[in-house]
Amino acid sequence: QVQLVESGGDLVPAGGSLRLSCAASGSIFSIRTMGWYRQAPGKQRELVADITNSGRSNYADSVKGRFTISRENAKNTVFLQMNTLKPEDTAVYYCNAQIVGTSFRPADYWGQGTQVTVSS
C-alpha cells in the first residue's frame, strides 16, 4: 500500500510563512510528478504547484513569486514553502503524487490534507 502524509498546516497572520511537507511511504517503485492542491469551502480543488521527478515546477498564477515547491527524492518527500500568505490562501492543502507501486502502473495518490488558515 501507498500512503501520503502531509504536515505543516497552521494558523498564521497575513504576510506570514508556512512550510508544508508531504512524505510518501509504502510499496513504491518510483514517483513521477508530485504536487500540492488546495480546496477552500465551497470551491473546487485547484492545483497550487507541482514538480516533476526531474525538478521542473509549475505554479498557479495566484501563488507565483510567493510559493516554492521542491522535493527530496531520496525521502519521497515534497515541500511547499509559502511566503507572504494572504487570507485567500486559506484552504485545505492536499498532497498528490503519481506513483508506480506494486502494479508497476502509475497511479494518483492523495494525502488526507492539512489545514492552512491565514487570518487578516
Descriptive account of the structure:
0% of the residues lie in helices and 58% in strands. With 120 residues, it is mostly beta strands. Strands 2, 4, 5, 6, 9, 10 and 11 form a seven-stranded mixed sheet that branches. The radius of gyration is 14 Å and the shape is elongated. It starts with a strand and ends with a strand.
Describe the structure using short key phrases:
single chain, 120 residues, mainly beta, 7-stranded mixed β-sheet, 4-stranded antiparallel β-sheet, 11 strands, elongated
- Output the radius of gyration: 14 Å
> What is the N-to-C order of secondary-structure elements (H for helix, E for strand)?
EEEEEEEEEEE
Taking the alpha carbons of the first and last residues, their distance comes to 40 Å
Largest sheet: 7 strands, mixed
Strand % is over 45%
- How many beta-strand segments? 11
**Number of helix segments?**
0
How would the global form be characterised? elongated
Which structural class best describes the helix and strand composition? Answer: mainly beta
pLDDT < 50 runs, ≥5 residues: none
Helix % is under 10%
Average pLDDT reading: 96
